[in-house]
Amino acid sequence: MKVHVQFRPRRKPDGAVVLAAGATAGDLLKAVAQPPSSTLVVRGSTPIPEDVALVEGEKILLLSSFSGG
Asked: What does pTM read for this prediction?
């Protein structure tokens, strides 16, 4: 299955990620080496938990937390 991923802030180039059928948001985070403790997975405008299955061809936003001053 292929999903389209946007990274914000842009730490990696946006693009397609190939995952196994039935992959979850958590599987996506592992595949792109993003820590679940500081990355929000967003479908449309709704954050989704790590155990939610992804759908072929959908667009996912990975929003990483950042801090500084």
From this structure: 0.92
Q: Which residue has the tokens 């061809």?
A: 57
Phi, psi of 25 (to 5 degrees): -60, -35
11-52: pLDDT as tens digits: 789 999 999 999 999 999 999 999 999 999 999 999 999 999
- List, in order, residues 6 or more apart from 26 with CB less than 8 Å away: 36, 50, 51
* Residue 63: CA count within 13 A, CB half-sphere: 10
Collapsing DSSP states into helix, strand and coil, what is residue 62?
Answer: strand
pLDDT number for residue 53:
98
2-64, what's its fold?
Ubiquitin-like (UB roll) (3.10.20)
Domain spans in the chain, listed from the N-terminal domain onward: 2-64
